[in-house]
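Retro notes (design track)

What went well: tokenization of the new backbones is finally stable.
What didn't: we kept losing track of which sequence belonged to which structure.
Fix going forward: every design gets posted as structure first, then sequence, in one message. First example under the new rule, 368 residues:
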């Protein structure tokens, strides 16, 4: 198979020579392949022709990743969308579940989410299966999305009286995976949480095997994180023994500020190897893409935002190869037939501040 970079070179060279001949040979001879624009074009072609390149490694078991941080606007949705698209473009079957009534993930993936659209609400509160509410996306045939409609805003209250309310999403995901033939089961399930610690986020933490926390490289970035970590401890103790924080992703990094470096250092000191080496820069293309119903990878594949999300997804995927296999094979999910039947814990006051030894990093100090 031809290298996509080579293909781009020859097609650009052909364009240039035809432009030169039509303008009477005024153009300079030979292309400058080291110019910023050529480099960006090369980066773009690598992302767009991802399938021609080495695919990301298949995880040793299905990974259900909850993307959570109760702080608003830190990049949960942006990271869910762009990591999801990157995993899918690089060959991994990925299911994205929008669990935020704002429906921003659905918007960014170009998936319909007006009132009445079959959505995650119907699976959580109603009797629908996930298979009935999952939608294809235009980004990749490997990527599917369960959208969220505004109905989900009422789910926090409606779920209160539902039996095993904390387990609704977990059971829906397990039933969905079981119903699919092995070669169609997702390798990755990414769940985008709302900016709160209510019943929706609780469902996502019970459904997941691992948590990915996006942290914005800004002042107050770490505030409130202690409460999230305490809640994850509570969920582990009472509802989902398998849940663990496995990944931290630094987002909206602005290399021009000292503060961004300070936050990044502090997060790395506190969380060590959990923090991905890839850092997502603040990049205007990332924020423009959802307006076109796209991820940044499809909207502007050569941008720094796009390539950094590809790198973050690659790292995430590489960390997934050694998670241990289940007895029944690589497409099974660890503990799938086990803890789903755990009883709901009435005493769990989710959302309240719970002291936990050592939980919660210190508040970031602004640089002087
Ligand atoms: N790397 C980036 N560069 C520039 N803008 C970004 C970047 N990442 C996210 N944004 C923008 O920041 C805003 C918040 O991002 P996003 O919606 O992903 O956060 P969130 O944590 O999901 O928010 P919420 O808590 O409301 O769900 C959006 O307008 C998004 O486009
Ligand atoms: Mg969001």
């Amino acid at each position: 198979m031809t290298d996509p970079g080579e293909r781009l070179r020859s097609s650009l060279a052909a364009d240039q020579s035809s432009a030169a001949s039509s303008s009477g040979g005024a153009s300079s001879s030979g292309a400058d392949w080291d110019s910023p624009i050529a480099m960006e074009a090369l980066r773009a072609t690598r992302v767009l022709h991802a399938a021609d390149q080495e695919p990301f490694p298949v995880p040793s078991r299905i990974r259900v990743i909850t993307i959570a941080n109760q702080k608003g606007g830190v990049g949960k949705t942006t990271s869910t969308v762009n990591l999801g698209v990157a995993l899918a473009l690089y060959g991994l079957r990925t299911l994205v579940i929008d669990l935020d009534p704002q429906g921003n993930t659905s918007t960014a993936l170009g998936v319909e989410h007006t009132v009445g659209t079959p959505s995650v609400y119907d699976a959580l509160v109603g009797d629908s299966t996930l298979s009935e509410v999952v939608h294809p996306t235009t980004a990749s045939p490997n990527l599917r999305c369960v959208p969220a409609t505004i109905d989900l805003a009422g789910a926090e209250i409606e779920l209160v009286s539902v039996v095993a309310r904390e387990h609704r999403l977990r059971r829906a995901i397990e039933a969905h995976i079981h119903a699919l033939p092995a070669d169609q089961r997702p390798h990755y399930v990414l769940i985008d949480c709302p900016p709160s610690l209510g019943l929706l986020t609780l469902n996502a933490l019970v459904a997941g095997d691992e948590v990915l926390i996006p942290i914005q490289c800004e002042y107050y970035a770490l505030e409130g994180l202690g409460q999230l970590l305490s809640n994850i401890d509570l969920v582990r103790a009472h509802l989902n023994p398998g849940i663990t924080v496995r990944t931290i992703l630094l987002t909206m990094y602005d290399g021009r500020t000292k503060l961004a470096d300070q936050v990044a250092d502090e997060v790395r000191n506190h969380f060590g190897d959990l923090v991905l080496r890839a850092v997502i820069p603040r990049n205007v293309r990332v924020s423009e893409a959802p307006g076109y119903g796209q991820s940044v990878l499809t909207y502007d594949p050569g941008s720094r935002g796009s390539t950094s999300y590809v790198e973050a997804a690659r790292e995430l995927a590489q960390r997934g190869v050694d998670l241990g296999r289940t007895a029944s094979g690589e497409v099974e999910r660890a503990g799938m037939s086990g803890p789903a039947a755990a009883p709901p814990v009435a005493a769990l006051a989710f959302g309240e501040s719970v002291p936990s030894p050592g939980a919660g990093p210190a508040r970031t100090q602004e640089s002087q």
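Added context from the reviewer: The two ends are 54 Å apart (CA to CA).
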